[in-house]
Amino acid sequence: MSKKDNGTSLILAYMNEKNRPYSSQDVFCNLQKQHGLGKTAVVKAMELLALEGKIKEKTYGKQKIYFADQSQFKDVNDADLKAMDSQISQLSAEMHSLNQSCRQLDSELKELSSSLTTEEVMSEIKALKAECSGYRSRVEKIKSATNHVTPEEKEKVYKEQNAYVKEWKKRKRLASDMMNAILEGYPKSKKQFLDEVGVETDEDCKVLVPST
């Protein structure tokens, strides 16, 4: 684009290609980033093009709207309009299908991005193998130990435990009955009585009687 041209040929080609109404601000925003046109240059170029009759100008209040000269385009009959409508429908359906495909691919990409890489999987497998090896070593040590408890010894321990627990419950019940009998004629509370005689209960020591 030459300095003498000042963007008029570019703007004219753009207006004819798009063939839709634009303000000078619209054209500036659409072309500035790619072609580096200044706003003042765009305004002057569009006014010049309108003055020369190359584009048309309409004023709505304080705003000027520009559009391509429609006389340069051939007339479109009903058949052509229907063909265009059909093409638009077809392209819209294709666009919808492509959008769905893009969304599906985006979803798959996110899923793949969150998955472990091959190197990470190999590292994880290596760590798990080392962990399994440690467990195997522990199992072998347990199997090779000579101090296993026989079923008979285990049964004996359980029976002794049950006997001690039953005796514990029996003595606790006897002590409770004796204390209740004393408390019937005792003028103070149960807690005061226990404090005075220096008795600590299982509950004070936070001890629970095991179940048999």
From TrEMBL:
Chief location category: nucleus
Compartments it resides in: Nucleus
Record-level GO cellular component terms: condensed nuclear chromosome; DNA recombinase auxiliary factor complex
Listed GO biological process terms: homologous chromosome pairing at meiosis; meiotic joint molecule formation; meiotic strand invasion involved in reciprocal meiotic recombination
Domain Leucine zipper with capping helix intervals: 149-205
Domain Homologous-pairing protein 2 winged helix: 9-68
Signal peptide per UniProt: none
UniProt keywords, alphabetically: Coiled coil, DNA recombination, Meiosis, Nucleus
Family classification: Belongs to the HOP2 family.
Protein name: Homologous-pairing protein 2 homolog
Organism placement in taxonomy: Eukaryota, Metazoa, Chordata, Craniata, Vertebrata
